[in-house]
Each structure stands twice: as structure tokens, then as C-alpha cells.
Specification:
two-stranded antiparallel ribbon; about 270 residues; elongated; 7-stranded antiparallel sheet
Length: about 270
């Protein structure tokens, strides 16, 4: 009997040790796992914040390049010679054709007089730039990019909202995102003769945004000041301000408290 009692005590002690060991092991794993989750969360936050910063810097850099481009075209000797003397229009069009072909991001390059009449226009034409014959040039006096640009002074630049191109009275299909840039044109006597307008192909910057998140967790979304998606998780809900049936598809309607905070703060993350 005493021998059996000792054996029972031995196995009971082993059981206690086993339970304590397993408890410590489980607690250690739980702490390690919790620490791992916190580290993953911190890494994800840092990664997403970095993506947003890259997207912001990318946008600013692209806009700065566009401004440099249009300032160059607006002040090139060939163009100024045409503005001041009305001569050598063909040389200007050739320069613009070559420029359009080289940059591959301007749907149209145009010079309009102070009444909104197109005097010259280069169409990118899906990678085959061509000058538009004089008989096909149009009057654009009522288009917002002309009325806004013609009011500007020397050195000022107009940038339109980011929207979709309109052909006639309907949205061009397939969709063609566009940003229009305009500069007033002055002759040698500082008389405003008209405006220079460049239509930037917004798909270029959209694709750069999408490339940022290729192979990474999460996604980049681009939202305008009215909380409409320009790049979003659902393509069918993009450009809601241009489609009547999508007008309620806004970030504000889906995430009201988040949008209130975003719209009030200039930068940050949460």
C-alpha cells in the first residue's frame, strides 16, 4: 500500500508539472502572438502611410512636369514668332507634333485666339499625333477652360478639375479621364492674344496610382474634394459626379464620420 501511494504521488506531481508547463507555454505563445499582431499592425500602418505619401509625391511631381511642359511650349521661339508675326505656323505645328509624340500624355495641344477660335490644334490620336486641318478647327468660347484661362494674367496657369472627356453632349467611351491646363498668351507688346490649352491624359496618373499597390496589401483610392471616387474599389462607382445614376456613390455617404475628419485635416492617418 505505501508503495502504491508513492506511485500515485509521483504521477500526480508529473501531472501538475505538465499542466504548469503547458500553461506557461500557452501564455508565452499568446504573448508572442499578440506581440506579432501588434508588429504586423504597425508594419501595415507604416506601409500604407508610405504608399499614400508616394502617391502624393507622384502626383505633385507629375503636375510640376506638366507645368514645365506647357510653359516651354508657350514660350518657345517658334510659337512666339507665330504670335508676334503670324508667320511659320507650320513649323509650330511640327514642333507640337514631335512634342506630343515624345511625351505621349497630351490628348490635345491648342492655341485659341481671344474670341475662342482654335488657330491650331494637335491631336494625339492614340499615339499617332496629327495636326488638325484649318477647316476642322472650332470655336470654344463657351467652354469653361477657355473662359477661365482668358481671364488670367501673365504667369498664371489654369488647371481644370479631373473629369471625363465629353464628345458632343455625351461622355466619350471608353472613358477618357482628363485634366486641362491653360495659359494666357501675350505678344511682344504685352497684349493678350488668346490662350494655350493642353489636355492631359489622366489615365496616365491613374495607372501610376494603381501600380503603387500592385502586389501589396490594401489599395490606393483617389477621391476629389466632393468625395467622389476617381479611383476606387468599385469601378462602377467611379466618376459619380458625371453620371446621374451614380450621384449618390460618394465616400461621404459610405463613410460619413471618416469623411468629416478627412475633409477637415490637411494630412495624417487614422
Amino acid at each position: 500500500m505505501p508503495k502504491t501511494f508513492k506511485t500515485d504521488n509521483y504521477f500526480f506531481s508529473l501531472l501538475i508539472i505538465f499542466i504548469l508547463t503547458m500553461t506557461i507555454l500557452v501564455l508565452s505563445l499568446s504573448v508572442y502572438k499578440q506581440k506579432d499582431v501588434v508588429n504586423d499592425k504597425n508594419f501595415l500602418e507604416q506601409n500604407q502611410a508610405a504608399l499614400v505619401k508616394i502617391g502624393r509625391d507622384l502626383t505633385i511631381n507629375e503636375l510640376e512636369q506638366i507645368v514645365t511642359d506647357i510653359k516651354y511650349l508657350n514660350t518657345s521661339p517658334l510659337f512666339l514668332g507665330y504670335v508676334n508675326n503670324g508667320m511659320d505656323k507650320n513649323s509650330v505645328e511640327n514642333e507640337w507634333e514631335a512634342f506630343s509624340d515624345s511625351k505621349m500624355k497630351y490628348d490635345q495641344l491648342r492655341y485659341l485666339d481671344d474670341q475662342g477660335n482654335e488657330l491650331m490644334r494637335i491631336n494625339y490620336n492614340n499615339g499617332n499625333p496629327e495636326k488638325v486641318p484649318e477647316k476642322l478647327l472650332q470655336n470654344k468660347k463657351d467652354r469653361y477652360y477657355f473662359t477661365e484661362t482668358i481671364k488670367l494674367g501673365p504667369g498664371e496657369i489654369y488647371m481644370s478639375k479631373f473629369d471625363l472627356n465629353i464628345e458632343g453632349n455625351s461622355i466619350e467611351q471608353p472613358e477618357k479621364p482628363m485634366i486641362r491646363f491653360g495659359l494666357p498668351v501675350f505678344d511682344k507688346d504685352n497684349v493678350k492674344t488668346g490662350v494655350f490649352v493642353a489636355n492631359y491624359l489622366g489615365e496616365k496618373i491613374k495607372q501610376k496610382f494603381l501600380n503603387l499597390t500592385d502586389g501589396t496589401a490594401g489599395s490606393i483610392q483617389l477621391i476629389n474634394k466632393d468625395s467622389y471616387w476617381l479611383i476606387g474599389p468599385d469601378k462602377a462607382k467611379e466618376w459619380g459626379f458625371m453620371y446621374p445614376e451614380r450621384e449618390d456613390y460618394t465616400f461621404k455617404n459610405l463613410f460619413p464620420s471618416e469623411w468629416e475628419r478627412i475633409s477637415k485635416e490637411k494630412k495624417g492617418h487614422f
